């Protein structure tokens, strides 16, 4: 997140100045993160559902994808998991607009 905010907005989020940003402004900045930033790429990997794309993931992408699915699968119900994946997909769709 830190590098994504710096890359896209030129903002350092671990500063005293950033503490004045309201929650609503922070959410707006976060939802506007470009898919080409580090955070955007991770969100895209985690939200991917196309089996052909997943099969073509490189080692690091597969590690990110598997770690997310395994971590979430261990701690939440299937209904909650589906809901969380839908939320990620919606966030990614909003980022691509």
Descriptive terms for the model:
mainly alpha
Describe the overall structure.
- Helix 3 (38-47) packs across helix 5 and helix 3 (38-47) crosses helix 6 (78-96).
- The protein starts with a helix and ends with a helix.
- By secondary structure, the protein is mainly α.
- The chain has one domain (2-96).
- The protein is built from six helices and no strands.
Write the layout of secondary structure elements.
Elements: H1 2-9, H2 23-31, H3 38-47, H4 51-55, H5 59-75, H6 78-96
Helix pairs in contact: 3-5, 3-6
The total tally of domains equals 1
Number of helices: 6
- Sheet having the most strands: none
Radius of gyration: 15 Å
- What is the structural class? mainly alpha
Report the principal-axis shape.
Answer: globular
Q: Could you tell me the strand content as a percent range?
A: under 5%
The separation of the N and C termini measures: 20 Å
Averaged pLDDT:
85
State the order of secondary-structure elements, H for helix, E for strand.
Answer: HHHHHH
Helical content, roughly? over 70%
- Strand tally is 0
Residue runs with pLDDT of under 50 for 5 or more positions: none
